[in-house]
C-alpha cells in the first residue's frame, strides 16, 4: 500500500477522486460529496488579486555574504563582519504588465530583496534603474494609470503615457534610461539592481550617513535587441522566468556584488542636486562605490504561488542601523506597499513562510484573517505590563533628525530635470544614441496630438540639442522655436 495517500484538506484519505457521488448511475450529484464540494470551492479561490504593479515576476532563494565590513557606517548586523552570511529571497518583475504578460517588454524591472536577519527582515525594494519617473508619491496613481489599460478600450494608451511624461519633465532622466539599451535586459541575471532611493545608515555610536544601494551583476550587463525581444515575447513570453529557473537548476548560480555610495549628512544641504530626489543620481566621482558584499542565488522556489506570488516587500521593513530619508517618493511607499499586501494577501501576510522572519517575533498583534500565531505568552497581550511581556529596547530607536518649516504642500526646490538626462545621452556611444532615438520615435509615433509630441521634444532638446533635433526629425516635426 502506498504511503502517498490523497487526502482532503482536513487530512482524511480520499477513496475516489475520479467520480462524483450521485443518486444512482444517472442521478443528480449529491451535496453530501464533501470532497467534490471542497475541491470546487477551493478551486474558485485559488488566486489572490494580482499586484497592481510588478504583477509578472520570478524569484529565487540565496544568501548575502559580507566581503567588506562597513560597521563604521551602520550597526545593521547583516552588513557587519567579513564572511557573515544572511539568507535572502529576491523577486524580479516587470512593472506595467499583467500576470500573464511577456517578460521581454521595454519596462523597468523590479529588484526586491528580502534579507532574513537576526534582527528581523530587511527589504530593499528597488528597480534595475537607479532613478524613477516621478519624485513625489502623490503623482504615483496617475503615473501608473497611464501605464495601464484605457478604461474603455482596454488597450495600452501611448497618448496617456507621453501626455503624462510631457507634463512631468522630472521623468526625462528615467525615460532616456528606459529608451536606451538597458530598457530590455537580456536576462534577469544580466542586469544591475538599485535601491534607487536615498537611505540613512546609523552606526553603533549614533553617527549617520546618507547612502544609495547598487547591486552590480557579476554576469555582466547584457541587453536585448528590440526585434529579438519582440520575437521572444510572442514565442516564449516567460523567457526571463525560464532562464533564471534553469540557470539555478543547472548549478549556474547568478550573483551580484553590493556597493553603496556614502554621503556625509551635511553634504545634503550643499550638493548640486537634491540628494533625496529619486529622479537624480549621485556622481560616482563625488561619492565612489564602496563594496559591501555578494548576493548569490542558489535555490529555486518549491512552489511559485506560495513563495513568489505571496512574497511581500516594503521599503518600510527596516532593521536597526537603517533609516529612511526625506525622499518624498520613499515616504509614500512606506505606507503604500505594506497596505497593498494587507489588501492583496491579507492582514497576516507576514506570518506566511516566505515572509516570516527567521528572528523571533514577539508583539501584541492578535487575530485577524488566517492568523497562525497567538504570541509567546497567552497571558500577556498588552504593553506595558507586569507579567514579563516583551519590552521596548531604546537602543533600537530610529535615529533622530531635525525638522523645520511650515506644514504645507511644498515642491522640491531643485528643478533641473535636463542636465542628468543630457549627460546620460552624451555618455552613450553613437550607436546607442541612434538606437535610443529610434526607440523613442517608434514609441511616440502612435501619439495622436502633435501638441504632446512637441512638448516632449522640447524636453529632449533642453537635455541635449542634438537629442531633441533627431527625435523631432524622426517624427517629421520641428523643434519648437520657444524652446530654442
Automatic annotation (TrEMBL):
Reactions mediated catalytically: 2 H2O2 = O2 + 2 H2O
Annotated GO MF terms: catalase activity
Key words of the record: Heme, Hydrogen peroxide, Iron, Metal-binding, Oxidoreductase, Peroxidase
Which residue ranges does the record annotate as region Disordered? 1-22
Pfam families, A to Z: Catalase, Catalase-rel
* EC assignment: 1.11.1.6
Question: InterPro entries in the record, alphabetically?
Answer: Catalase, Catalase_3, Catalase_AS, Catalase_clade1/3, Catalase_core, Catalase_haem_BS, Catalase_immune_responsive, Catalase_sf
Per UniProt, residues of the Catalase core domain are 7-391
Query: Which domain of life does the protein's organism represent?
Result: Bacteria
Q: Which family does it belong to?
A: Belongs to the catalase family.
User: What name has this protein been given in UniProt?
Assistant: Catalase
Amino acid at each position: 500500500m502506498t504511503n502517498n495517500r490523497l487526502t482532503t484538506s482536513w487530512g482524511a484519505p480520499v477513496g475516489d477522486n475520479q467520480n462524483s457521488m450521485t443518486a444512482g448511475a444517472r442521478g443528480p450529484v449529491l451535496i453530501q460529496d464533501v470532497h467534490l464540494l471542497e475541491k470546487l470551492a477551493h478551486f474558485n479561490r485559488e488566486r489572490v488579486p494580482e499586484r497592481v504593479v510588478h504583477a509578472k515576476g520570478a524569484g529565487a532563494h540565496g544568501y548575502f555574504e559580507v566581503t567588506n565590513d562597513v560597521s563604521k557606517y551602520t550597526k545593521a548586523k547583516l552588513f557587519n563582519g567579513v564572511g557573515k552570511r544572511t539568507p535572502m529571497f529576491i523577486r524580479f518583475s516587470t512593472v506595467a504588465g499583467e500576470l500573464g504578460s511577456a517578460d521581454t517588454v521595454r519596462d523597468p524591472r523590479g529588484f526586491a530583496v528580502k534579507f532574513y536577519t537576526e534582527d528581523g527582515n530587511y527589504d530593499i525594494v528597488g528597480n534595475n534603474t537607479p532613478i524613477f519617473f516621478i519624485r513625489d508619491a502623490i503623482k504615483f496613481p496617475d503615473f501608473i494609470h497611464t501605464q495601464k489599460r484605457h478604461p474603455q478600450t482596454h488597450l495600452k494608451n501611448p497618448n496617456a503615457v507621453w501626455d503624462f511624461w510631457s507634463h512631468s519633465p522630472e521623468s526625462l532622466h528615467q525615460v532616456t534610461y528606459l529608451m536606451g539599451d538597458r530598457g530590455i535586459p537580456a536576462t534577469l541575471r544580466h542586469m544591475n539592481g538599485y535601491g534607487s532611493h536615498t537611505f540613512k545608515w546609523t552606526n553603533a555610536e549614533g553617527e549617520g550617513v546618507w547612502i544609495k544601494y547598487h547591486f552590480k551583476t557579476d554576469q555582466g550587463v547584457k541587453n536585448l535587441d528590440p526585434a529579438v525581444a519582440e520575437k521572444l515575447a510572442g514565442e516564449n513570453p516567460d523567457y526571463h522566468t525560464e532562464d533564471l529557473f534553469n540557470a539555478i537548476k543547472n548549478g549556474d548560480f547568478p550573483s551580484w556584488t553590493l556597493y553603496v555610495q556614502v554621503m556625509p549628512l551635511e553634504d545634503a544641504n550643499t550638493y548640486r542636486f537634491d540628494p533625496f530626489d529619486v529622479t537624480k543620481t549621485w556622481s560616482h566621482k563625488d561619492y565612489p562605490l564602496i563594496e559591501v558584499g555578494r548576493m548569490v542565488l542558489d535555490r529555486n522556489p518549491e512552489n511559485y504561488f506560495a513563495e513568489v506570488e505571496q512574497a511581500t516587500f516594503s521599503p518600510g521593513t527596516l532593521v536597526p542601523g537603517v533609516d529612511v530619508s526625506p525622499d518624498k517618493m520613499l515616504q509614500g511607499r512606506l505606507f503604500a506597499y505594506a497596505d497593498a499586501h494587507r489588501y492583496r494577501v491579507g492582514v497576516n501576510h507576514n506570518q506566511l513562510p516566505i515572509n516570516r522572519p527567521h528572528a523571533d517575533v514577539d508583539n501584541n498583534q492578535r487575530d485577524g484573517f488566517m492568523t497562525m500565531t497567538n504570541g509567546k505568552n497567552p497571558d500577556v497581550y498588552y504593553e506595558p505590563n507586569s507579567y514579563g511581556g516583551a519590552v521596548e529596547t531604546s537602543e533600537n530607536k530610529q535615529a533622530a533628525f531635525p525638522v523645520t518649516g511650515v506644514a504645507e504642500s511644498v515642491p522640491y526646490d531643485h528643478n533641473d530635470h535636463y542636465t542628468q538626462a543630457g549627460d546620460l545621452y552624451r555618455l552613450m556611444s553613437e550607436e546607442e544614441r541612434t538606437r535610443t532615438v529610434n526607440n523613442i520615435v517608434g514609441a511616440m509615433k502612435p501619439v495622436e496630438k502633435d501638441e504632446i509630441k512637441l512638448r516632449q521634444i522640447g524636453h529632449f532638446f533642453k537635455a541635449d540639442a542634438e537629442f531633441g533635433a533627431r527625435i523631432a526629425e524622426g517624427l517629421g516635426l520641428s523643434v519648437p522655436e520657444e524652446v530654442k
